[in-house]
Amino acid sequence: MLRTRIAVSGSSGLIGAALVRSLRADGHEVTRLVRRPARAGDEVEWDPGRGYVDVAGLVGCDAVVHLAGAGVGDRRWTEAYKREIRDSRVLGTAAIAEAVASLDTPPRILLSGSAIGFYGDTGDRAVDESAPPGEGFLPSVCEEWEAATAAAEEAGVRTVHARTGLVVARRGGAWGRLFPLFKAGLGGRMGNGRQYWSFIALHDHIAALRHVLETETLSGPVNLTGPDPVTNAEVTAAMGRVLHRPTLFTAPAPALRVALGDFAGDVLGSQRVLPARLLDSGFTFAFPGIDAAVRAALR
Questions:
Q1: Looking at the predicted structure, is the pLDDT value of residue 265 above 70?
Q2: 214-228 per-residue burial string, b: 16 or more CB within 10 A, e: under 16
Q3: Which of 26, 51, 148, 189 has the fewest CB atoms within 10 Å, measured from its CB?
């Protein structure tokens, strides 16, 4: 990839921060969208709630990567927090897409975050990008989230929806909560453990984002998951093997529902999602298996 200027929202999050480090290490110029007045030369102010973006700060960008949004697993799902999850994604994405579309010379690509929550509970059935949306709160949010990029697509900007799975990382995201529990010997399966988890190593996720930026033939939905989804019971066993800890504890389904509210349905649900378009476009995973992904997170 030639050295370029790339704008990134959500740059303080798990994935955004890692992407910014990766891009800058290779000499790319990164502009960070921040939700406050810009205080540094690499910052651009935006306010997703108001639909505001300082468009002048995007002039000259070759790509925009939009990763901002309220964390799905950060808090118990009340009706108020579900509204925050939806609005942070839909309103923020619409603001970014409209800002991109308004530029005299728009960027070549808008790479916008999405999630495998689009597919809902797939049980044992493997799905790829050709599958329709599922039913429930997260699928409906993902549909609206992806539709919010319409202004950029209509302006002729190559638009990609990065449908992210469970990112295996030592800090941040769902796995960042699992590691301390398993290290303390308190980890175990959730519910019956038969639900599929579609994981991806953080290293592979960043490499996949960069692959998408560079691959002109990719547009529309792209699943950012590893090639071999495993069950929660298999995740539990792998964590025990790699960390050399017992995995005797379980989190019963009723307890999860009390602790997590509606989000428990997604923790206990099964998503067996395959990265068909990534593989077809020539992407190679460095850490395709669950043991390798967990070990990579500990480096």
A1: no
A2: ebeebbebbbbbbbe
A3: 26
* In the chain, domain spans: 5-298
**Contact yes or no for 178/298 (Cβ under 8 A):** no
101's enclosing H/E stretch is helix 79-102
Query: E strands of 48-94, at which residues?
Result: 52-53, 63-66
Separation of first and last alpha carbons in the chain: 26
Helix, strand, or coil (residue 227): coil
Two tokens at 112? 């916008």
Whole-number Å distance between alpha carbons of 82 and 287? 33
- Non-local CB neighbours of 140 within 8 Å, separated by 6+ positions: 133
Cα dihedral 24, 111, 142, 88 sign: positive
- Identify whether the C-beta of residue 188 lies closer than 8 Å to the C-beta of residue 232: no
pLDDT of amino acid 240? 95
Angle at 48 between CA 45 and CA 50, to 5 degrees: 95
Architecture in CATH of 5-298: 3-Layer(aba) Sandwich (3.40)
Distance CA 96, CA 79 (A): 26
Distance, in Å, from the CA atom of 234 to the CA atom of 196, rounded to the nearest integer, reads 9
> Which of 282, 163, 165, 286 is closest to 214 using CA atoms?
282
Threshold 0.85, pTM exceeds: yes
What does the pLDDT average to over 212-219?
97
State how far the Cα of 177 lies from the Cα of 170, in Å rounded to an integer: 8
Q: What is the pLDDT of residue 267?
A: 62
